[in-house]
Specification:
Blueprint (H helix, E strand, L loop, with lengths): L2 E5 L2 E4 L4 E8 L7 E7 L6 E6 L6 E3 L7 E6 L4 E6 L8 E8 L4 H4 L7 E2 L3 E6 L1
Parallel strand pairs: 2-11
Antiparallel strand pairs: 1-3, 3-8, 4-5, 4-9, 5-6, 7-8, 9-10, 9-11
């Protein structure tokens, strides 16, 4: 019902910023909650941020709280992840996900989303 494509990743020095985009296609996009996750080599995929279908509820992981913002533009069928004050430990492949979920636990879970993008690489140098 929905297809996702991430973009905006790249190489940045520590302290820099990046804005990741997740472009969605599908007739039911506006009814889906959206999440951002990341996975570093040899590590489990972890929650980064999530936003409810209408943008009314936002959840952000403790590891990036205070330097990250998530938003969605329904008119453009796009969800954004603004990353500021980047650290080397932020290096990972970042994925966006979508599904009909609404609870806090579901929005933060790696296992509650059915639809995933291919990911975009973020590399932060020291």
């Amino acid at each position: 019902q929905v297809q996702l494509v991430e973009s905006g990743g790249g190489l940045v020095q520590a302290g820099g910023s990046l804005r990741l985009s997740c472009a969605a296609s599908g007739r039911t996009f506006s009814s889906y909650a959206m999440g951002w996750f990341r996975q570093a080599p040899g590590k489990e995929r972890e929650f980064v941020a999530a936003i409810s279908r209408n943008g009314g509820r936002i959840y952000i992981a403790d590891s990036v709280k205070g330097r990250l913002a998530i938003s969605r533009d329904a008119a453009k069928n796009t969800v954004y992840l603004q990353l500021n004050s980047l650290k080397p430990e932020d290096t990972a492949v970042y994925y966006c996900a979508a599904d009909l979920v609404s609870s806090v636990s579901e929005l933060r879970s790696n296992y509650s989303y059915r639809y995933w993008g291919q990911g975009t690489q973020v590399t932060v140098s020291s």
